[in-house]
Amino acid sequence: MSIRWSLVIPVKTLVAAKTRLAAATGPHRTRLAVAVACDTVTAALACPPVARVIVVTADPAAAGPLGALGADVVTDPDRGLNTALRTGAAHAVRLAPGDAVGALQADLPALRPAELAAALTAASEFDQSFVPDALDIGTTFYGVRPGLPFEPRFGGESRIKHLGGGAKELRLDGIDSLRRDVDTPDDLRAAMALGLGRHTAAVVAELWPAGPPAR
Ligand SMILES: Nc1nc2c(ncn2[C@@H]2O[C@H](COP(=O)(O)OP(=O)(O)OP(=O)(O)O)[C@@H](O)[C@H]2O)c(=O)[nH]1
Ligand SMILES: C=C(OP(=O)(O)O)C(=O)O
């Protein structure tokens, strides 16, 4: 039988989130951050190997809409990103000890369920694995097979940290939407070229009716 996955998606308190988009978005920054997280969660929930999505956040303004989409919401103890992920993973293991556990960044507004499914199928072959971001510096997905220790090393140059921790780097063709996290206006333009999910597309169309912000 194929492995099923619990995916943990961390969402930072909105007042502190997406600061690299502040100049481009002004007062709409938090609305864009929620929309991006909504598209990430929607795509994850539509991915066949994903049994459940667990959002970890301390922010009720994110918890409300993400819970309404069908995610389980766990309160973030607010001791940093990797602690948030371990908290979500512990919840996942309590719910479904026989399922694999993955961490997925919340800022993947172009994510395609089929591309995530391809990565999860590949990840099912390795005890510990990860997907590097589009720049080959960070990480967008980290996962472990059922029953194995979950040791995420996100933050900064996390690709090299995950390699150092012994995780297998998944270098697959055709998973651009999974690798395209959005931190800057350039990232947002690249995600638009792949095709934004409906929540982000609606906010972007309202914010920039004539097209994306100039460089
Ligand atoms: N729950 C939780 N999520 C976090 C935390 N720190 C970062 N994240 C999430 O981790 C991912 C990467 O976050 P960062 O790139 O560090 O922060 P960001 O808000 O996306 O962007 P910047 O403010 O521009 O750095 C995003 O999905 C964030 O929502 C945290 O302390 N708790
Ligand atoms: C936290 C990370 O991502 P970001 O590029 O969004 O800062 C990371 O890649 O480990």
From TrEMBL:
<feature type="binding site">
    <location>
        <position position="155"/>
    </location>
    <ligand>
        <name>phosphoenolpyruvate</name>
    </ligand>
</feature>
<dbReference type="GO" id="GO:0043814">
    <property type="term" value="F:phospholactate guanylyltransferase activity"/>
</dbReference>
<protein>
    <recommendedName>
        <fullName>Phosphoenolpyruvate guanylyltransferase</fullName>
        <ecNumber>2.7.7.105</ecNumber>
    </recommendedName>
</protein>
<feature type="binding site">
    <location>
        <position position="158"/>
    </location>
    <ligand>
        <name>phosphoenolpyruvate</name>
    </ligand>
</feature>
<keyword id="KW-0548">Nucleotidyltransferase</keyword>
<dbReference type="GO" id="GO:0052645">
    <property type="term" value="P:F420-0 metabolic process"/>
</dbReference>
<dbReference type="Pfam" id="PF01983">
    <property type="entry name" value="CofC"/>
</dbReference>
<keyword id="KW-0547">Nucleotide-binding</keyword>
<dbReference type="InterPro" id="IPR029044">
    <property type="entry name" value="Nucleotide-diphossugar_trans"/>
</dbReference>
<keyword id="KW-0342">GTP-binding</keyword>
<comment type="function">
    <text>Guanylyltransferase that catalyzes the activation of phosphoenolpyruvate (PEP) as enolpyruvoyl-2-diphospho-5'-guanosine, via the condensation of PEP with GTP. It is involved in the biosynthesis of coenzyme F420, a hydride carrier cofactor.</text>
</comment>
<keyword id="KW-0808">Transferase</keyword>
<dbReference type="InterPro" id="IPR002835">
    <property type="entry name" value="CofC"/>
</dbReference>
<comment type="similarity">
    <text>Belongs to the CofC family.</text>
</comment>
<dbReference type="GO" id="GO:0005525">
    <property type="term" value="F:GTP binding"/>
</dbReference>
<comment type="pathway">
    <text>Cofactor biosynthesis; coenzyme F420 biosynthesis.</text>
</comment>
<feature type="binding site">
    <location>
        <position position="139"/>
    </location>
    <ligand>
        <name>phosphoenolpyruvate</name>
    </ligand>
</feature>
